[in-house]
Amino acid sequence: MSEKKRRSAEAKALERVASAAREVQAASRALEVHFADEGGHRPSTLELARFAAAMQELKNAREAFDALLAERR
31: exposed, middle or buried (C-beta count within 10 Å: 0-12, 13-18, 19+)? Predict the structure, then answer.
């Protein structure tokens, strides 16, 4: 892979990690409101699923980024 293409792939992979991290943060904030109030209610299944999916995407994105960096060695 040429240096330019490799850098482009790394940039895309890093953007995927950043985007996934932002989604985890947003999903986490949505869950936090349920625990901030006294007597708060339980989060919905959809909110929990959103958080779980966001965490999985972050994990996958980080693994893909790590694999790209490992190829450089």
Answer: middle
Tell me the pLDDT tens digit for each residue of 45-72.
999 999 999 999 999 999 999 999 998 7
Torsion angle of C-alpha atoms 2, 67, 10, 21, degrees rounded to 10: 170
Task: Report pTM.
Answer: 0.84
In the chain, domain spans: 3-72
| 2 phi/psi in degrees, rounded to 5 | -70, 160
What is the Cβ-side half-sphere exposure of residue 29, based on CA atoms within 13 angstroms?
5
